[in-house]
Amino acid sequence: MSAGRAESRKVRLKGGGLEGLEQTVLECAPRACTARATGEAEEVLFVVAGEGELWLNGERHALEPETGVNLGPGQEYELHTGGSGPMRTAVFRPPGSPAAAYYPDGTLAYPGTPTLTT
């Protein structure tokens, strides 16, 4: 399996005391996976297109369009796509929050992000 590409852009929300959210769009190719860690902040995942699985705490959870998942701080997880097409997922988190993403061989996908600790 291989990792998909990720593009990152920031979204600003006004009002309600929010300074804004950072949005990352992950697009993973069919039969690909990406390993991630939430770091010190929560993340909210929202599947925009495609299907796959979220692997978290030894359990597999089905993902399909319009599925949302709230992940707490310190969570390590993997996103796996099915074979029918790519999966596009929007990830929302507080701005400036560290996150880590890895290729299946354990190589850090985005240099400069924190590493997973086990």
Protein architecture, described:
- The chain has 118 residues and is mostly beta strands.
- It is built from no helices and ten strands.
- The strands form two sheets. Strands 1-2-9-4-7 form a five-stranded antiparallel β-sheet, with no helix packed on it. Strands 6-5-8-3-10 form a five-stranded antiparallel β-sheet, with no helix packed on it.
- It is globular.
- The two termini are 22 Å apart.
Would you spell out the secondary-structure blueprint of this structure?
Elements lengths: L4 E7 L9 E8 L4 E5 L5 E7 L2 E5 L2 E5 L4 E4 L4 E6 L5 E7 L6 E3 L16
Antiparallel strand pairs: 1-2, 2-9, 3-8, 3-10, 4-7, 4-9, 5-6, 5-8
Tell me how many strands there are: 10
What would the CATH topology be?
Jelly Rolls
CATH class: Mainly Beta
The best one-word shape is globular
Give the gist of this structure.
The chain has 118 residues and is mainly beta.
Which terms summarize this structure?
five-stranded antiparallel β-sheet; 118 residues; single chain; Jelly Rolls
